[in-house]
Amino acid sequence: MSTPATKVLMSAGNPTGRKLEELLVEIAEDLRVKNDALEADPSPTSRAVRINNLGIIDCLALAGVRQLDTLRRLDLIGPDQGPSGTPRIGAGAADIPSATTPAPATGAAPVPIPTTADLPGTTQSPASPMGDGPATAARPAV
């Protein structure tokens, strides 16, 4: 049976691929650069794109937290032997006694999330009746 190859991420089938945790950081940095370039444009479209980019950055941050949790769990099993080494889990992995296997995650720890208030010229709408954040999207400051 052949090893499945990933196109972007490092794997046994793509040993020169990229690490997910590094890609997430690089993409978030690129989005911040793009947002900085849009800052001088007061148009509604520019503001909407900046808000969307902040939301994407938030999602990338959460993905980073989950990836770091994955790496921590894998490190509990054993050291990383790289893409050409023996996998710690999955096909080709050595049997691991159940006592050393970490319990599944119940969720990721909360991460500080930038809000649209971080954008110049915006304010937050009042909190929703559920107490879970703004009731509507950001609106221009008056």
Verbal overview:
This protein is an all-alpha fold. Helix content is 37%, strand content 3%. It has two helices and two strands, in the order ααββ. It has helices at residues 20-38, 44-77; strands spanning 122-123, 139-140. It has a two-stranded antiparallel ribbon with strand order 1-2. It is elongated. 4% of the residues are buried.
Topology:
Blueprint: H1 20-38, H2 44-77, E1 122-123, E2 139-140
Antiparallel strand pairs: 1-2
Helix pairs in contact: 1-2
Q: Helix-strand pattern, N to C?
A: HHEE
Overall number of strands: 2
Residue share in β-strands: under 5%
What is the C-alpha radius of gyration, as a whole number of Å?
21 Å
Number of helices: 2
Percent helix, as a range, is: 25-40%
Task: Summarize, please.
This protein has helices at 20-38, 44-77, and strands spanning 122-123, 139-140. By secondary structure, it is an all-alpha fold.
List the keywords:
2 helices; disordered C terminus; two-stranded antiparallel sheet; 142 residues; mainly alpha; elongated
